[in-house]
Amino acid sequence: MLIRDLSRAAGVPASTIRYYERLGLLQAPQRSAAQYRLYGTADVERLRFIQKAKRLGLSLTEIGQLIALRAGGTAPCQQLKAMVSSHLQQLDQQIAELQALRQELATYHSNLAAQLTDDATAPTETFCQGTICGFIEQVSYDA
Amino acid sequence: MLIRDLSRAAGVPASTIRYYERLGLLQAPQRSAAQYRLYGTADVERLRFIQKAKRLGLSLTEIGQLIALRAGGTAPCQQLKAMVSSHLQQLDQQIAELQALRQELATYHSNLAAQLTDDATAPTETFCQGTICGFIEQVSYDA
DNA sequence: CTAAACCTTGAACCTAACTTCAAGGTCAAG
DNA sequence: CTTGACCTTGAAGTTAGGTTCAAGGTTTAG
Fold first, then answer.
1. Between the CA of B31 and the C1' of D19, what is the distance in angstroms?
2. I want to staple B32 with a disulfide (CB 3.0 to 4.6 A). Which of A2, A25, A121, B36 is the partner?
3. By residue range, what is the domain housing residue A54?
4. Rounded to whole angstroms, what are the CA distances from A113 to A110, A129, B127?
5. Which of A27, A47, A60, A78 should one mutate to test binding to chain B, selecting the residue with the greatest count of B CBs within 10 A?
6. What is the ipTM of this complex?
7. Can you tell me the distance from the alpha carbon of A2 to that of B9, in angstroms, rounded to the nearest whole number?
8. A39-89 residue pLDDT tens
9. Chain B residue at shortest CA distance from A129
């Protein structure tokens, strides 16, 4: 299988396949007489593995660690559990932050919409009082 | 005011101040005889404006657009409203995606936790059946 | 037999918002 | 009068996950 076939089979660009090989996520494949990379079905599996692990939010570095563990003869599931647990925490924090921002932004937008008409020719100057924009200058600075 | 004073007054590193100047977010300041940048209180205001706009989730590029509008004599509030509106939409989508992933990851983690004990010496091999890790290889590929 | 469509490599480029570095000038304290 | 803390510039490095490019070799269809 040439790199384009692997690319099609796994839905990953050839450039990305070569990139993964450089990162050590894929083994260096066999070569044809003309130095073309030759792949087998195990490589399709490996690429799919990487795609799935990415879907779980794992970084390429983390995926590399799992692969390395397995290559060293250890089942990487305990490690995986720790990674997933850590990602869950990060996700919770990130969601909380985004929701807080969303809430703030929504209030802010209502405020803006109530004071500004959609008419582009309206005298917004009356409302936008500030050095650059009073609506921004009202924003609190901390947090 | 020297750059370090502005830096302290606004809580922004001197390197970032020079960076903002290059981006056009801050006007080129006056210079001392030795070419040191000299700032006034308006620059403190401007930097605080930038910090506040960043708090609203605006990019430096967007902030630059607002500043440019004001410099051109137009109140940038309508533009701001559009930016905030667009960011709200993006935020909603991002939150929805993260929540879906969180849900999936939580289920996945329960599954993992139920089958793996915390005992590092446990025979995880029994459970982790797969080329690299059966738990990952079960993950669905699409979406 | 030639032109298109591949393949190879290493290096450079991309985003965003900075930070760091190198090499040099300035200024205040002791 | 020197040491150390600052200032200047332009360029390069950072992160992550790739993509694009240049220059060259190969393979295949017509």
1. 42
2. B36
3. 3-75
4. 5, 16, 57
5. A78
6. 0.80
7. 60
8. 999 999 999 999 999 998 899 999 999 999 888 877 788 888 899 999 999
9. B75
